[in-house]
Amino acid sequence: MTAKIADFLRDSRPATPCLVLDLDVVADNYRSLTTALPSARVFYAVKANPAPAILALLVEAGSSFDCASIPEIDMVLDAGATPDRISFGNTIKKESDVAAAFERGVRLFAFDCEAELDKISRAAPGSRVFCRILTSGEGAEWPLSRKFGCEPDMAEELLLAARFKGVEPYGVSFHVGSQQRDLAQYDAALEEVAGIFKSLSAKGLDLKMVNMGGGFATKYLVDIPTAEEYGRAIHESLLRHFGNRLPETIIEPGRGMVGNAGVIQSEVVLISRKSANDNRSWVYLDIGKFGGLAETMDEAIRYPIHSEHDGGETQDVILAGPTCDSADILYEHAGYQLPKALKIGDKVEIRAAGAYTTTYASNGFNGFAPLKEYYI
């Protein structure tokens, strides 16, 4: 937690739960990524946190944007970006939305099947298209396999077909999975992509761009690679597989751009046990899965949780949210411990919570208000 966030929480005493995000950290993350990968264009994954203050900061810094919907495209345009800085990166789009994006000036579209390619060719003629391939997602704390992408052989066929559908077959994309700490996964994916490039070049089609997606991690409970380590590993892989014919490259950081910039302050609503000899306390917070912590599903993302009693004796706990839904349990098996001195009414800080919290928060499930947001 930054000093600026600590000062805000102390001086403003906002109602909980709330997210407080330090924009200076976002600016630092952008600089770190562009320094580590100077030849790659950054397309911020808007879904991670579309707050106008973040978008305006990144527009000013020179970022481009990966958008998944027309509302996201409009938010980016409203923040001052030009359409040439937008990629419509969702592979599942209504044809009417493709047309709406094209009307707004967007000319870069993702696809992963023939039906999606046909939509783009009809609704966005002349646009650049890139085909997303499947990856294993191995090593990622939040895998993104199966739903998006196609096998490399199919990608080749689709890109060859694109030449005759009135669009420009521009490149290939992949995503190694969100919160990816295994740098070897980028190498494996780039080896697949290089094979596609070489195969298509032999058939008369020279692709130009590789979209390496996201995966850049935020530090939660375990150490992560630095931006420099990501950059070095990716650059070495590009040289290994493409030699001197390096393609244009794109990266789509989301979590790695904003995750460590935000802290959620929450209040302890209840502490209880289920029996006299229960060896773990249940700690209920005023935020849960439906209030913004959806990524605790299957205990995949494990947020650092702190309180004013840190440093004292601890006990094993089960952490849960406030709603009347039995699925609203955050951590039961992850081995969380909190101070024994923690009591009802105390505040806790859920750190590294700047990504995928406000956007996952429900709009009033059980009558609880959406997560409040402060950008400082």
TrEMBL record:
GO cellular component: cytoplasm
Pathway noted in the entry: Amine and polyamine biosynthesis; putrescine biosynthesis via L-ornithine pathway; putrescine from L-ornithine: step 1/1
Enzymatic reactions: L-ornithine + H(+) = putrescine + CO2
Listed EC numbers: 4.1.1.17
Residues that bear N6-(pyridoxal phosphate)lysine: 47
A Gene Ontology BP annotation from the UniProt entry: putrescine biosynthetic process from arginine, via ornithine
Needed cofactors: pyridoxal 5'-phosphate
Keywords tagged on the record: Lyase, Pyridoxal phosphate
Record PANTHER family: ARGININE/DIAMINOPIMELATE/ORNITHINE DECARBOXYLASE, ORNITHINE DECARBOXYLASE 1-RELATED
Similarity comment: family membership: Belongs to the Orn/Lys/Arg decarboxylase class-II family.
SUPFAM superfamilies in the record: Alanine racemase C-terminal domain-like (SSF50621), PLP-binding barrel (SSF51419)
Domain Orn/DAP/Arg decarboxylase 2 N-terminal: start-end pairs: 26-258
Lineage: superkingdom: Bacteria
GO molecular-function term, one example from the UniProt record: ornithine decarboxylase activity
Active site residues per record: 324
InterPro entries per UniProt: Ala_racemase/Decarboxylase_C (IPR009006), De-COase2_N (IPR022644), De-COase2_pyr-phos_BS (IPR022653), Orn/DAP/Arg_de-COase (IPR000183), Orn_de-COase (IPR002433), PLP-binding_barrel (IPR029066)
Name this polypeptide is given: ornithine decarboxylase
